Amino acid sequence: MKSPKEKQIENRILEMASGRAKELASQLFADEEVEALQEYANTVSITRMNFNDHGPVHMKTVARNALLIADILHKAGIEFTLEKEGHGDFEQVQMILLLAALLHDIGMTVGREEHERMGTILALPLIDRFLTPLEPSLARRIAMRSITLECIAGHMASRRIHTLEAGTVLIADGSDMKKGRARIPMILNNEPKPGDIHQYSAAAIEDVRLEPGVRKPLRITVAMTSSVGFFQVEEVLFPKIESSSVKPHIELYAGLPDQEPKCYL
């Protein structure tokens, strides 16, 4: 059964998507195989590996973030790769972002190592299954499928990416670092061990805001309750921004309450 938080995120995504993208989102949310993959990814991540949330709430949060970033860039007059190459419009860009974000961590069902590559293998038949009835043009489907796979393969900043869509998913994923992602594994096991800095730093992140910027189109502001949160910004989010095709359009700030935020970009 879906949690109230999960349903809330789904409703927000449906509000943001339009046309066939909205129809696609509804189908993805109702699909039993997608749901089972997302849930088992979380079982592997949290129960088996004591790692942060990589399940349905995380993947849907990334989808919401991706649509928000895309909307901000679109309103600033920035074209996405699919549009520039003449293979689709902004509605189809939204479809790519939804597919990629909602499937990007399904490789975790196999394991953490190279899960982004394993995710492309698992996602390929799903991408075709969802796109085929919604997009009649084979050429457009191939372009959309290819960019979606690049988004999934590139979400760990472990390889060079070239499309603005992949850069958007990369930032959307890195921006989901609020304290809720670390809550369950910390409850299940609070014994200190190597690697806990990721959980404790994530637990210090109070909020991540994605909004129009002043100097650049997109401003990311990270609010934290403890300075350990800077680890999450500098070791998780910033490297993803550095590898992202969206970097030229980003302002990045992070800081503690009642202090001047640190400007990274």
Layout of strands and helices, then pairs:
Layout: H1 4-16, H2 19-30, H3 32-48, H4 56-75, H5 81-84, H6 90-103, H7 115-131, H8 138-153, H9 164-174, H10 180-188, H11 196-203, E1 205-212, E2 218-224, H12 229-243, E3 250-255, E4 262-263
Parallel strand pairs: 2-3
Antiparallel strand pairs: 1-2, 3-4
Structural key phrases:
single chain, 265 residues, alpha+beta, Hypothetical protein af1432, 2 domains, 12 helices, 4 strands
Low-confidence stretches: 183-188
CATH class of the largest domain: Mainly Alpha
For the termini, the CA-CA separation is: 41 Å
Task: Give the count of helical stretches.
Answer: 12
Structural class category: alpha+beta
Largest sheet: 4 strands, mixed
The Rg value, from CA coordinates, equals 18 Å
Helix residue percentage: 55-70%
Mean pLDDT over the full residue set: 92
The SSE order reads HHHHHHHHHHHEEHEE
Named CATH architecture of the largest domain: Orthogonal Bundle
Query: What is the CATH fold-level name of the largest domain?
Result: Hypothetical protein af1432
Strand content: 5-15%
The rough form would be described as: globular
Structure report:
This protein has 265 residues and is an alpha+beta fold. Helix 11 crosses helix 12. Strand 1 and strand 2 form a beta hairpin. It starts with a helix and ends with a strand. The chain is 59% helix and 9% strand. It folds into 2 domains: 4-174, Orthogonal Bundle (Hypothetical protein af1432); 180-263, no CATH class.
Explain briefly what this protein structure is.
With 265 residues, this protein is α+β, with helices and mostly antiparallel strands. The chain contains 12 helices and 4 strands; from the N terminus they run H-H-H-H-H-H-H-H-H-H-H-E-E-H-E-E.
